[in-house]
Amino acid sequence: MSTASNDLTLDALRVRPVEVPLAHPLLTASGAIRTAPLVLVELQTEQGVTGASYVFAYQPAALLPLAVLLDNLGDALRGQSVMPIALDAALSARFRLLGPQGLTGMAMAAIDMAAWDALARSLGQPLVRLLGGVPTPVPAYNSVGMDGADGAARAAVESAARGFRALKIKVGYPDVATDIAAIRAVRREVGDRLALMVDYNQSLDVPEAIRRIRMLDDEALAWVEEPTRADDYDGHARIARAVRTPLCLGENWWGVADMAKSLAVHASAFGMPDVMKIGGVTGWMRAAALAHAAGMPLSSHVFPEISAHLLPVTPTRHWLEYLDLAAPVLGEPLQIVDGCFTAGNRPGSGVEFDDAAAARYCVR
């Protein structure tokens, strides 16, 4: 459906909390993710255009509270313009005293992503074109859990067979020797055919991170991700100065203010915003501008469907992270071709829900 963009008015939010089983539980040094608790959002307009998005609650305990918050926001925003910048300003004002973190930030981003989807659909354009770009193949890496040396080796073989150009494994075992064993198991299977990243998931203190990463410095890693607490930017800067392997941060930047703090102290060489935590499409575009000014390569964190639209309009685009969370409830999950994901030419972000699957996994 096509309509003038400035005619779109929010009528209701359809909110569905679902808990999607993962084919392979994601084990990390900071805990295990065995299911994907997602909130599916459809922003319905008075003009008949619907925009879709989903957000990841991480923990099942947070799923229903997030859904309730979105339900409440749908009632409060009825009649509001669906223009994303106007919506962002309205939501930022509403939550000024509470802040844009946690469930609040997730809900705001869900609405922002759905609003951009609705706007793109109303204009008959894929989101990437609405943002000024064209669908472009974006190189992807496969993201897997902490499965020991044997599991890392299997993941390397499977990733190469599927055409991925890089692999990220979780580390942070009780001893660094096991971290190294997992890394070398990957190298034995695929050599240098895949770039290799590791993710500590915030599991180390600063001195231990320095000690371990120095022992990894000769392993030719593309990056080490979040070795210590995500919001300890000074600690990451200390680590970065003490080791040779570059660090990557960003999945826990709650908005561009956090990103600016990280950039100010040179906490990492690489950035990886999460479109949900950074503030939706609106927040991502602001983050891309900061990265451009700083010369920081920017990769995505999860949400591959919408990331395939955002990375082509990111001047310093780097990698698209592939982690299969929502595919079981999507009508047309992204497909990898020659190691890349490409945004489609259909209007919107490409997020469409399989209603039968959503009903099967719904938790209320």
The chain-level mean pLDDT equals 96
What sequence of helices (H) and strands (E) makes up the elements?
Answer: EEEHHHHEHEHEHEHEHEHHHEEH
Instruction: Give the count of structural domains.
Output: 2
Give the amount of beta strand, in percent: 15-25%
Q: Give the overall silhouette.
A: globular
- N- to C-terminal separation? 31 Å
The CATH architecture of the largest domain: Alpha-Beta Barrel
Poorly predicted tracts of residues = 1-5
What is the fold-level CATH name, i.e. the topology of the largest domain?
TIM Barrel
CATH homology group of the largest domain:
Enolase-like C-terminal domain
Q: How many DSSP-defined strands?
A: 11
Oligomer: single chain
Measured on Cα atoms, how large is the radius of gyration?
20 Å
Q: How can the largest sheet be summarized?
A: 8 strands, mixed
Number of helices: 13
> What is the CATH C-level name of the largest domain?
Alpha Beta
Helix percentage range:
25-40%
How is this structure best described in words?
By secondary structure, the protein is α/β, with parallel strands linked by helices. The chain folds into 2 domains: 5-124 and 354-361, Enolase-like, N-terminal domain (Enolase-like, domain 1); 129-341, TIM Barrel, CATH 3.20.20. Helices cover 40% and strands 19% of the residues. It is built from 13 helices and 11 strands. It has helices at 60-76, 84-94, 102-122, 127-130, 148-161, 176-190, 206-216, 233-242, 256-264, 275-278, 280-294, 304-310, 355-361, and strands at 10-28, 31-45, 50-56, 138-143, 166-170, 195-199, 223-225, 247-249, 270-271, 320-322, 340-341. Strands 4, 5, 6, 7, 8, 9, 10 and 11 form an 8-stranded mixed beta sheet that branches. It has a 3-stranded antiparallel beta sheet with strand order 1-2-3. Strand 4, helix 5 and strand 5 (166-170) form a beta-alpha-beta unit. Helix 7 (206-216) packs parallel to helix 8 (233-242). It is globular, with a radius of gyration of 20 Å. The protein starts with 9 loop residues before the first strand and ends with a helix. The model is unreliable at 1-5 (pLDDT under 50).
